[in-house]
Amino acid sequence: MQVRGAAALRSVEKxxxxxxxxxxxxxxSTSNQWTTDHAEMAVTxxxxxxxxxxxxxxxxxxxxxxxxxxxxxxSVAKIGIAxxxxxxxxxxxxxxxxxxxxxSIPDDMQAQWDAATLRIRASREGLNHILSNYNEAIAQxxxxxxxxxxxxxxxxxx
Length: 158
Prior knowledge:
Layout lengths: L1 H26 L10 H4 L5 H20 L8 H25 L7 H33 L3 H8 L8
Helix pairs in contact: 1-3, 1-5, 3-4
């Protein structure tokens, strides 16, 4: 299950990087590389864009923190929380663009964001299914007698 869970987590990360690239475009970056330099990212006069940049950076960091570790504890749940915060920051930024600037973002950019987040949600559902199966398996007899001694614990969902 660990291998399948890690693959699902990599899928979440892969699609999240498409969202990161779109935010980089909004930030005005001329490179196609997602920057992890938070000080560089936060340089903007638009508070909603700053909020979006901060949320995206937090999602990037939680994905990095979870990479290579065991799928357990709160690391997976933190990714879900960071993803939802990024989604909310994106919606806030889009709403401000529509209300204040009287224009909306380009349709192709919104379509790319929607496609990436749809793929993230699908990967997230797959990961949650794997984690639910894991939790169910370690709760069953006789496994539950062994899992405690071996250090296996139920994990939270994303």
